[in-house]
Amino acid sequence: MNLSFDFTGQSVIVTGGARGIGLELGRFFADSGADVFLIDYDGEEVTKAAAEVGARAIPGDVSSTEDIDRAVEQVIAETGRIDVVVNNAGILRDKVLWKLTDDDWESVLAIHAGGTFRLTRACVPHFRARGYGRVVNVTSYTGLHGNTGQANYATAKAGIIGFTKTAAKELARFGVTVNAISPNAETRMVASIPEDKKAELAAGIPLGRFGDASEMCAAVGFLASREAGYVTGVVLPVDGGISI
């Protein structure tokens, strides 16, 4: 990366940090000088990931208020501050809607939309006390356009867009910006797609390929920076042009 960012002295929380985009964001912020905390339900994997990138691991379920409150308390206890929150955690439970169970529906919304809400809410008192904060949420093209077999996922991601814009309006007075990226990256979710179908999907991307997870970092870094203090309520596509 030719771009350089300086997050020295800042505390950054990244959810879904055990792999994929979350792991690469953890690496990016740690390399940029931040104290990084990776939250993930998979305690073993997030511990390995944190050791790999020079971050600290917090095993926890973002759909649990108790786990989120405990995580925020740990960050405050260890660093005394929270500057940046990246709400990236997510799961898939793909089925056509008439085959979706209540658990398929509720678990996806609880992790994506619920986790984004819970962590942001828990950090707001700390942001307000300092008059500063950056929240970056991870949404999806599917949240705007839908996708067969993903009614639950599309609903959750659309909800994150609405949450981003509402929180941006509510928190601006406290010096807090709230933005989102809409990525299109080669993650574990994409890797699970059959190769013929993945090639078909890639052909529909103007740049002709899925992005690497690391290619999401510059966009998130900008939105999380002090320099982006006049940018809020934005959903930035980082998707190779698929949303055109």
From TrEMBL:
SMART domains: PKS_KR
Signal peptide: none
Highest taxon of the lineage: Bacteria
Pfam family of the protein (one): adh_short_C2
Listed InterPro entries: KR_dom, NAD(P)-bd_dom_sf, Sc_DH/Rdtase_CS, SDR, SDR_fam
Segments forming domain Ketoreductase: 10-184
Family, per entry: Belongs to the short-chain dehydrogenases/reductases (SDR) family.
Name this protein carries in UniProt: SDR family NAD(P)-dependent oxidoreductase
Organism listed in the record: Streptomyces hyaluromycini
